[in-house]
């Protein structure tokens, strides 16, 4: 028998280890509890917005699957190398629309990895810290988001009067677009106003104004 054969045999046989059933059960129980915790936190965080139940269910299942993979990798070196090769060819093409969903996704996977490694205290502490950060940062006050004033004027000469009125109600404004069609003028102005109803009423009472809309800007807040 050559040295290479001995090395291969020792590599294949010596890389295996038996994980106690008690450790496996404890790991799965801890992971299930933390999965339910992440499931509930995601449900609470999205109660006022669009809630994707299938994504939340995936968050609850991912830690269990990840922990099972980590346990299998610990039991046998050959299996761990095979899983690394198998997982390297997996491609996820589902687009994550909300950046906060990406945070929950990584949180779910990391809890499975940490628990699968047997670091239960780290997993519990990480859940508490992440939860605190999410709620604190989510409730921090931010700058008031700008709004878009869309106005259709029957005469181009009405732009100056309109902008003078905008100055009275908004300290910040910026003309985003001008569209001229014959004598008509379509203006889109970015404004930040607090008295929205009164502002729109004053604009609509202008002689040259045919239609007016005040739209919430779905973008970054301006500081």
Give your account of this protein's structure.
The protein has 223 residues and is of the alpha+beta class. Helices cover 58% and strands 14% of the residues. The protein is built from eight helices and four strands. The protein has a four-stranded antiparallel sheet, covered by helices on one side. A hairpin with a 2-residue loop joins β2 (173-181) and β3. The model has no long low-confidence stretch (mean pLDDT 78).
Number of strands: 4
Shape: elongated
Strand content: 5-15%
What is the CA-CA span between the terminal residues? 75 Å
Biggest sheet overview = 4 strands, antiparallel
Write down the domain tally: 2
The sequence of SSEs as H and E is: HHHHHHEHEEHE
By oligomeric state, this entry counts as single chain
Give the overall pLDDT as a whole number: 78
The stretches of 5 or more residues where confidence is low (pLDDT under 50) are none
Structural key phrases:
223 residues; Alpha-Beta Plaits; 14% strand; alpha+beta
Fold blueprint:
Blueprint: H1 3-14, H2 21-45, H3 53-75, H4 77-88, H5 99-116, H6 120-138, E1 147-153, H7 158-169, E2 173-181, E3 184-191, H8 196-204, E4 209-216
Summarize the structure.
This protein is of the alpha+beta class and 223 residues long. The chain has helices at residues 3-14, 21-45, 53-75, 77-88, 99-116, 120-138, 158-169, 196-204, and strands at residues 147-153, 173-181, 184-191, 209-216.
């Amino acid at each position: 028998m050559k040295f290479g054969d001995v090395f291969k045999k020792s590599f294949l046989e010596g890389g295996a280890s038996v994980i106690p059933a008690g450790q496996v059960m404890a790991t799965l129980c801890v992971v299930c509890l933390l999965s339910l915790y992440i499931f509930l936190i995601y449900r609470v965080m999205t109660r006022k917005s669009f809630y994707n139940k299938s994504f939340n269910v995936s968050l609850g299942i991912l830690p269990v699957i990840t922990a099972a993979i980590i346990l299998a990798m610990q039991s046998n070196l050959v299996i761990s190398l095979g899983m690394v090769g198998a997982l390297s060819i997996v491609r996820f093409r589902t687009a994550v629309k909300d950046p906060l969903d990406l945070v929950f996704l990584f949180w779910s996977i990391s809890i499975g990895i940490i628990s699968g490694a047997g670091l239960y205290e780290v997993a519990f502490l990480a859940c508490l810290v992440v939860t605190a950060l999410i709620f604190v940062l989510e409730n921090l006050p931010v700058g008031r988001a700008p709004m878009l004033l869309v106005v259709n004027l029957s005469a181009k000469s009405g732009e100056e009067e309109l902008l003078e009125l905008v100055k009275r109600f908004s300290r910040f404004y910026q003309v985003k677009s001008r569209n001229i069609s014959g004598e008509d003028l379509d203006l889109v102005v970015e404004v930040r106003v607090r008295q929205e109803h009164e502002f729109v009423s004053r604009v609509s009472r202008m002689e040259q104004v045919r239609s007016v809309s005040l739209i919430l800007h779905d973008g970054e807040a301006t500081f």
